[in-house]
Every structure is written in structure tokens, then in C-alpha cells.
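Good morning,

Attaching, inline, the C-alpha cells for the sequence recovery test we're adding to the shared suite. The designed sequence is right after.
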């Protein structure tokens, strides 16, 4: 079958009226279920996100949760670590659940969607930040699922939100300095999740 370059028009844009906080929480929940299903012997295996093993990627996601909560409280996320190195294998669920509760509390006020939040690459409105983090959790859920033989039930709206955010944030051409490889060619009729991760430099 003929391969074509992934284009910004291959997934329909999500409903702009949707509350991006709900999409973020759904993406976090799916990531949590995927991490919880990792078997102990799989933690040291590689992932499609080549800088991370399964363990390190799970540690990264816990750290991202803590960063999201911190941003919601008005903090600069660059002051927090990018991985949670303090967790034993038996502590994942407790740490994850605690961080999720912090996110829910910090983002409970809808006004956060209009506030300017500080992310590693700049300052953006909370609504845009939620979409960015939705995409990060969705892509990394795919990384962990692929590495551990899982088949998550992908939410079409979350994938669309994630794809739109990544298309806004990542150029189609060279990505020097960005933590993503070049977009990978995919079939035009490939599943939406495959088109998303291919745009992010993964090979589905």
C-alpha cells in the first residue's frame, strides 16, 4: 500500500466547546490503568520513547502529574523534576492516586483555563496547556502499552485533541531541539492513534 506523509488534516478537529480539563483527566485515567497493568518483569524493558525504559517512563508520568498540579496552583513547572525517582515498585498506585487528586483539586476552578501557565517551552493559557498534557499522556500511554503488549481502548476524542495539539506544537519538518523525531509516514487509512504517534516520530 502506498505510504503518504502524515498531514495536519488527517484527523478531524475536536469540539472546541468541550472542557479540556475533562479530556486531560480521561487521558490521565487511561495512562493510570495502563501503568497499573504492567507486570513486574516488564518494568526494565525498552519503550518506543527511546530515552525511557518502562519504569523510567512511569516515573516520568508521575512527575508530570505533579507538575500539572503545581502549574494549577500557579507554580513554574520547570522547578520540579521530570521523573519521580523516589518510588519503589510497590508505591506506584499510591503515588499516582495522590498526584491525580492534587491535579483534580488544583484544576477544579474553570478560571484556570484562562490563566497563563508556565510550561518548559513557554507560557500559554490553561486550556492550551491541558491539551498539551492530554497529548503527552496519550502518546506515552501508547509507548507503555506497546512496550508491554497492551491494547488500550482509545477514546477517539482524546486522540483527536492530542493530534491537534501535537500538530500545533510540532513542525512537519526538522525538529532540532525538540524531544521528538521526524514525523513517520503512515497509510492514509491507518487508525487515528497510529497517525498521532507517527506524527510524534514513533513507528506504529
Amino acid at each position: 500500500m502506498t505510504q503518504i506523509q502524515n498531514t495536519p488534516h488527517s484527523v478531524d478537529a475536536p469540539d472546541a466547546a468541550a472542557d479540556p480539563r475533562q479530556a486531560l483527566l480521561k487521558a490521565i485515567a487511561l495512562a493510570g490503568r495502563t501503568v497499573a497493568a504492567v507486570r513486574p518483569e516488564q518494568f526494565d524493558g525498552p519503550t518506543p520513547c527511546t530515552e525511557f525504559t518502562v519504569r523510567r517512563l512511569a516515573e516520568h508520568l508521575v512527575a508530570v502529574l505533579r507538575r500539572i498540579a503545581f502549574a494549577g496552583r500557579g507554580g513554574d513547572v520547570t522547578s520540579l523534576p521530570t521523573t519521580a525517582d523516589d518510588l519503589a515498585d510497590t508505591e506506584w498506585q499510591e503515588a499516582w492516586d495522590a498526584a491525580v487528586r492534587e491535579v483534580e483539586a488544583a484544576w477544579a476552578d474553570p478560571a484556570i483555563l484562562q490563566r497563563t501557565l508556565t510550561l518548559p517551552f513557554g507560557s500559554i493559557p490553561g486550556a492550551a496547556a491541558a491539551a498539551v498534557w492530554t497529548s503527552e499522556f496519550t502518546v506515552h500511554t501508547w509507548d507503555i502499552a506497546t512496550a508491554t503488549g497492551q491494547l488500550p481502548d482509545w477514546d477517539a476524542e482524546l486522540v483527536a485533541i492530542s493530534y491537534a495539539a501535537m500538530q500545533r506544537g510540532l513542525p512537519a519538518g526538522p525538529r532540532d531541539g525538540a524531544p521528538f523525531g521526524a514525523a513517520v509516514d503512515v497509510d492514509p487509512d491507518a487508525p487515528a492513534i497510529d497517525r498521532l504517534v507517527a506524527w510524534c516520530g514513533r513507528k506504529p
